[in-house]
Amino acid sequence: MKKIFITSQYRRYRFCACVLILCLFSFQLSFAQAISGKCVGVSDGDTITMLIEGHTEKIRLYGIDCPEKNQPFGQRAKQLASNLVFGKDVNLDRVGIDRYGRTIGRVYIEGKSLNEELIRAGLAWHYKQYSSDSNLAVLEREARLQKKGLWVDPQPLPPWEFRKAKRGASSSGGDPQFSLNALRSAEAVAFRGNTKSKVFHRAGCKQFNCRNCTAEFASREAAISVGYRVCGVCRP
Ligand SMILES: [Zn+2]
């Protein structure tokens, strides 16, 4: 009996040792994945092109989703990514490949993570559907609390819903009402004014759809220029 016990103990130790060695090996492999190259293109906030050993590679930044170009802050996200990495030497940590054949990865510049910097600035969402990275989740929460970038809007439209709405609108498969509502809040009317009180609100404010909120403005300047005052709650 004792001998059998010792043997099974030994087997357990041997198993643990194997697991440990495998862990160390894969740890080393993941380090070997850090690749250096030059950023030669920025398509939008979360997609860049790198030149690596003579070939170009499109990189979709892992774990984040920037507003689309025609959404609020889409251009600002692209601008920040350009300022940080365009024309510079960067490091890439490959995470995987998406369904369009693009590399999914983390991009680093001078030790800083581009993925994290975009979220920190309030110019990207943590892409929860594809990432459970708790660091990105924390950064998004902080940006939200500080109302940075796109979080000045209390109810910004997530880019994945924006894309879904666009797809829905262009094919009969989608829910047309959802598509319409989403597109309307994303593109058409950014501000509404109360024609009685002459106070105007941003999309997302509780008062945005009030009974007298029938004046529509594409910009806050447009509202102010015709004598409307900003709402104290949503501060458009
Ligand atoms: Zn308001």
Provide a short characterization of the protein structure:
This protein has helices spanning 2-32, 74-85, 114-120, 134-145, 159-170, 176-188, 220-225; strands at residues 34-44, 47-52, 55-61, 64-65, 89-97, 103-109, 112-113, 125-126, 191-194, 199-202, 213-217, 229-230. With 236 residues, the protein is of the alpha+beta class.
Structure description:
By secondary structure, this protein is α+β, with helices and mostly antiparallel strands. The protein has four domains: 1-32; 34-152, OB fold (Dihydrolipoamide Acetyltransferase, E2P), CATH 2.40.50; 157-186, no CATH class; 189-236, no CATH class. Helix content is 39%, strand content 26%. It has helices at 2-32, 74-85, 114-120, 134-145, 159-170, 176-188, 220-225; strands at 34-44, 47-52, 55-61, 64-65, 89-97, 103-109, 112-113, 125-126, 191-194, 199-202, 213-217, 229-230. The strands form three sheets. Strands 1-2-3-6-5 form a five-stranded mixed β-barrel. Helix 5 (159-170) packs across helix 6. It is elongated, with a radius of gyration of 24 Å. The chain starts with a helix and ends in a 6-residue tail after the last strand. Residues 201, 205, 207, 231, 233-234 line the site of zinc ion. Zinc ion (ZN) is lined by residues 201, 205, 207, 231, 233-234.
